[in-house]
Amino acid sequence: MYYPWWYVPGLTAPMLIAVVAVIHVFVSHYAVGGGILIALENRFAVANGDKPYRDYWYKHARFFVLLTVAFGAITGVGIWWTIALASPLATETLIRTFVFGWAIEWVFFVIEIVSAFIMYYFWVKLKPQTHVIISAIYAIAAWISLVLITGITAFMLDSRGLFADWSETGNFWHAFFNIQFLPQTIARTGGAILLAALYVFFHAAWTLGNDKLLLEKVVKRMSCPIIFGVIVMAVGIAMSFILLPESVHRAIERAVLLNVLVVMFFGICVIMVLLMFFGPVMHPKSVSNGFAISLLVFGLTALATAEFIREAARKPWIVDQIVLGSQVYKDEISQLRATGFLRNSNWQKIPSNKLERGGMIFMYHCNNCHALESGLSAIVPLLSGEDDKKVIKDKLRLLNKPVISMPPWTGTEEELDDLADFLKQLSQEHYKQKSP
Question: Quick check: is 323 in a domain?
Answer without folding.
Answer: no
